[in-house]
Design brief:
Layout (H helix, E strand, L loop, with lengths): L2 E5 L2 E4 L4 E8 L7 E7 L6 E6 L5 E3 L7 E6 L4 E6 L8 E8 L3 E3 L3 E6 L1
Parallel strand pairs: 2-11
Antiparallel strand pairs: 1-3, 3-8, 4-5, 4-9, 5-6, 7-8, 9-10, 9-11
């Protein structure tokens, strides 16, 4: 059974930082591309950042220079370090594992107050 469990969300003031974690089980983690997506109220889910099995990364323009995605294959965990948070970063953040199949976590809420 595949499980992706996000943690680390919460309420933070603008300019603050949060670190999201996503612990995966039931997959061969190292071969999966791992991504973070977010969905704000009334908006479509959007890609925030992705890291491939080889460690290549890609970011949405809106978070470049502020967010950093990383992975620890020994711990089957992907991280999203979020710095200089803005109110517009407020959303539910979801972890995704992509190989031949795609799996999603349940999400963690991030609220940035102005």
């Amino acid at each position: 059974q595949v499980q992706l469990v996000e943690s680390g969300g919460g309420l933070v003031q603008a300019g603050g930082s949060l670190r999201l974690s996503c612990a995966a089980s039931g997959i061969i983690f190292s071969i999966y591309s791992m991504g973070w997506y977010r969905q704000a109220p009334g908006k479509q889910r959007e890609l925030v950042a992705i890291i491939t099995s080889g460690g290549s990364t890609n970011y949405a323009d809106s978070v470049k220079g502020r967010f950093t995605i990383s992975r620890d294959n020994a711990k089957n965990t992907v991280y999203l370090q979020m710095n200089s948070l803005k109110p517009e970063d407020t959303a539910d953040y979801y972890c995704n594992a992509q190989f031949r199949w795609s799996y999603w976590g349940q999400g963690t809420q991030v609220t940035v107050s102005s």
